[in-house]
Every structure is written in structure tokens, then in C-alpha cells.
Amino acid sequence: MAFNVIGKTVMKSLFGKPATAMYPVIKNEFYPNTRGNIQVDMEKCIYCGICGRRCPAGAIEVSKPDKKWEIDRTRCIVCNFCVQVCPKNCLSTERHYTSPMTDKSNRISTFFGQTVQEDA
Amino acid sequence: MGERTIIPFGPQHPVLPEPLHLDLILEDEKVVGAVPSIGFVHRGLEKLVEKRDFHEMMYVIERVCGICSFIHGQGYVQTIEGIFDLEIPDRAKFLRTIWAELSRVHSHLLWLGLMADAYGFESLFMHCWRVREKILDIFEETTGGRVIFSVCKVGGVWKDIDNETLKKIVEVLNVVEQESKDLTNVFIKDFTVQKRTRGVGVLTYQEAIDVGAVGPTLRGSGVAMDLRKLGYAAYGELDFEPIVEKDGDCYARTLVRAREIYQSIDLIRQCVSKIPDGEIDVKVKGFPKGEYVSRLEQPRGQVVYYARANGTKYLERFRVRTPTFANIPALLKMLPGCDLADVPLLALTIDPCISCTER
Question: For residue B353, what are the contacts with CB-CB under 8 A and spacing of at least 6?
Fold first, then answer.
């Protein structure tokens, strides 16, 4: 009995497909539900700042006068709370994680909304 | 009688990745006493309730522990719902139960792997973790995260699982059950493994009750106490009996956890067949006022949450009593009389989670 199990396992390990994927040649597939990078659609954003106030990690900063939406990628804990509370549904999560960075100055992503041209 | 020596065990030790420190008092090779000390990874998460609003706090509480993260979140929202006196929809209750039981399966498989690693059976360790990977994939597919799920909220859950995915989960679990059988048979029937675990670190029925052990440590000593029997979430509608072993040694505790994997898989099957359609959340209005205690069964045992709210958006006091904290006295009861070489194994059989304990 025990030899059967051992034999089966050995054969599976020798001739079967490996349990791991050959990264980076074969990349892991993400699911539609996967929580990844937070993205913002600046055309819909009304700069209400709810996402920034509700963020448990304090990673988001919104400025209405500058029409600026800023996220600190290294502080973000990808809990999706900002996406859930956004009244305009302009936030979404991408299906991949934030890529690693070598330079800390890249950690903040800033997005600017379109400024309305005032007639002189 | 030999000379007494004190040998420090931890906080850095090859067997335990987490910082548990024991001062072992030895007479030759035998342990005669142990003095524990914890406090190496204290983060002060309970204090944070005074600065984060009670909705946001869910995401903080989930990060108390990486393995029972879902049940921590569930316990927290259950406590807040208790203060609000809020009844959540049935479907949300069943979804919470499914995720909680999946957490239990993955936690026990992880523990079995660590146990195998503790006595040097590395290939078994890797096979346990290979099987566990399937459960993590289910989590990612249904919740979006592999370790931290962020699906609980005060008043229900954020995400629904459609019926097709539920069927798929059961199919995956059938495969997991089949593969776990081969693995757990090694823990249960293998002669060499039994040599390491049988009769080691016996905790008798009375001792287990006296020191207030919880979870599989308590059930391994013959006490049939499982908080899921309280009927929180959807457990009241499911049919199960607590798993109990009489011996109280390492083998009994391993057996309890191995059998609980199948029990959890069976509970998920029952949930999938009984889950009703409908809403998954109710709207929460206002701020909590009052206090509440809720108790849940985590993979490691009983966890107690206490919250006091004063009608503002911040809670006044929040407290978690985690299972490992309750099981450390049990560990100290088991240690005297064992060999030095068995100490890592005994420390593992209470399934210690130090980051839970110190929060």
C-alpha cells in the first residue's frame, strides 16, 4: 500500500507537469476579481476626496484646486475600499500588481484632470 | 540528577519563523521547565481604533494575521454588527462560512506542512503546500486576494460568488480531498512519523481544561468544545460534530487537524447545497454605541473580540484575545519531561501564531 503511494508520487514528480510555472517565460494568469494596481479615470473624477479620507493607509491625496489625484503606490494596501466608496465609480483595480521599483522617487503616481481653458 | 542548564529557544529559530522565545531549563537532555517571553513584534493595532473609523478598521484588523485573516475580519464585523443589533442577509452568512472554512482547510494544510518540516520530512512539506496552493487560487478567484481578502464589511460582504463558481469550488475541493488523503495517511499511518509524535507532550483532559487551552489543542485532549456549535454565521444550519481525540499527545493533535480538513470540506459542500439566493449586504446607518463580545472558532482555536463604542465614528476600545495566547500555558504544561529535540515539535503542535498573539 505504502509502496503504491510512494511509487505513484515518484512517477508523478518525475514525469508529470511541474507544480510551479516557468516564470518569467510563463506568467501567472490573474483572475477577473484580482485586486491589483489602483487606476483612476480622471475624466469622471469630481475631486470630492472621499477616497483619500477613507483610505486606511492614507495613501491617496486629492486636491480640488489643482485638479490633482495622487497615490503613493508603496503605502497602498490594495484593500479596494477607495474603489467601493467612490461616488462616481472612477476608480478601478487593474488585473496586475504594482511593478517593483528600484527608485523610491517613483512611488508616487500623480494624475491631473483637464483644466478648463478660461477665455481671456 | 544532572546539573541544570538554561538554553534559550528562539526568538530566531529554524523551525519557527515567528519570534517566540522560551528559556528552557534542562537537566541533561530533559526539559524540566520553561519560561516564555513574547513581545518582539507588537504593533499596537488595537490602539489604532481610536484613529481609524470603524469601517476602515476592518482592513486593519484583517492584517492581524496572514493565515486566519478572513476570520479576524469576520469576527470584527460580527462584533460591530452586534453593537448595531444588525441582522445580515442569509446569503452573506453562507458566503462568510464558505470563506472561513476554506481558511481552515488552507491553515491546516499549511500546519501539516510545517509539522512535516519540523521533523525533517521536507518532501511531504512541499506536497502539503502544493495542495494548499489550489485553495489560495480559489481565494484569488472569488475575493481578489490570496492572503488578505478584504471582502467582509459591516453589514454583509462586498463580493458575491455566483453559482457556477460555487460548483467549481466543490470540484476543486474534491481533488484537494483526494490528494490530502494520501498526505494525511503519512501523518496517521507512517511508522517513523508515529515514532516522533506518539506519546510526546501529553496534555491530559483535566490539564487542558485547567490551563484554558483552545481549539485543536483542547480537542486533542478529549474535550468536545468547538465554538462553531454556537451557530454564528451559517453554522447553525449545518450538520457537524466537533472532532475529538482522546490521547492528548502530538499524534492526537495532528489527527484532529487532519480530520478537520475533511470536516471543513464537508461543511463547504453543505453550504453550497443550502446557500439561498438574495442580497449580500444591508445598509449601515449611523455610528455604533454600546459594547459587544463575540467568540469565533479560528483554525487555531477560540478567538474573542470585545468592542466598546461611544456613538462616534471611532471605537473607544477594542480587544482581541487570540487562540495562541490561550495556548501558550498549554505549551508550558506539555514541555516538562520531554527531550530537548522534541521542543520545536511541541511548540508547533499548538500551531503558534505570534503575530496574532501580539497584534
Answer: B18, B65, B67, B68, B300, B322, B323, B324
CB < 8 Å to A86, chain B:
none
Interface ipTM: 0.79
* pTM of structure: 0.87
List the single best residue of B48, B49, B56 to mutate versus A (max A Cβ within 10 A).
Answer: B56
Q: Which fold has domain A30-119?
A: Alpha-Beta Plaits (3.30.70)
Per-residue pLDDT of B242-270, as tens digits, reads 889 888 888 999 999 999 999 999 999 99
Task: Report domain extents, chain A.
Answer: 30-119
Which of 1.10.645.10, 1.20.1250.20, 3.20.10.10, 1.20.1560.10 is the CATH number of B4-358? 1.10.645.10
Contacts B281 to A, Cβ<8 Å: none
**Confidence band, pLDDT 50/70/90 cuts, at residue B105:** very high
CA closest to B144 among chain A residues: A34
Q: Do B56 and A81 touch (CB under 8 A)?
A: yes
Contacts of B249 (CB under 8 A, 6+ apart): B197, B198, B199, B200, B201, B202, B203, B220
pLDDT in tens, A31-55: 888 888 888 888 888 888 888 888 8
